[in-house]
Amino acid sequence: MLIKNYLHQGPRLRIARLNVHYAKETPLLPFAVDDYLLNGLNKEALPYDLILHTWTTDPTLILGMQDTRLPYLDQALAAVEEKTPYQAVVRPAGGLAVISEPGVVNYTLHLGPHSYSDKLSIDQAYQIKVQLLQDLLAPYQLQLTTGEVSDSYCPGKFDVSLAGKKIAGIAQRRIGGAIGIFTYLSLYGQQDYRGQVVKNFYQLGKQNQATKTKYPIINPDSMANLKASLPRLQSTNQVTEALEGVISQDLGTSFEEIDLAALDQSILNDQVQRMIKRNRRLTKGR
């Protein structure tokens, strides 16, 4: 398995997990937590080598920074607010718009700067997450494929597809020597509706105007849920426990628990304020 090959083979690594559902009242908190963990690992202020942050949210349209450059962003955001259950936020990691809600589980794998043997390239870090998902599904004889699904939302080189349809996307963020690898996995729910929401968002936000950024022309049928191919994994808890089992078995150690309330609230609040500042461009001029 790739993750073991890339991590130190010396003393046993300390690994931890943090599992949280973030309510609509705190839409920026998961991103603040991710940056808190990345900064903490980079500064060696946290006593772990690897942290798995598993999170779900209430219905949210998560935008990339490039989405904020849409020429008619205000109109697109107004339509999202008025016609859908989603609220919009901007994340710090790269990429374009994605949907998050209880049927979509997000996994951020944080690697501390001393956890990996050699400098990980961007592609190598992405491949770690792909391999983890493949190992997750191996007992069910399901084979994932990777490659850009150009008519999906947030298309990228390491889109993850099953039975010809995209089920997951991967992004990455680095702070110093710490690496955060972000994955959203569409588990259950109305994936065709999610695709239509993002399609409408881009149609209203771009309105056929020429832009430097290439925004996707979305086909909602290009994406699907994991549950469609694997009904046996029906809940976020089942999938999360299986993924944690893959990591724990491979590294030969158990996860320690991190509680959200145990984080340094002053530092976490500073990260929240950074996210608030980043998101001001969504309300500018509205």
UniProtKB/TrEMBL annotation:
Alphabetical GO biological process terms: protein lipoylation
UniProt KW keywords: Ligase
Entry keyword annotation includes Ligase: yes
Domain BPL/LPL catalytic per the UniProt entry, residue ranges: 46-255
SUPFAM superfamilies membership: Class II aaRS and biotin synthetases (SSF55681)
Coiled-coil residue spans: none
Name of the protein described by the UniProt record: Lipoate--protein ligase
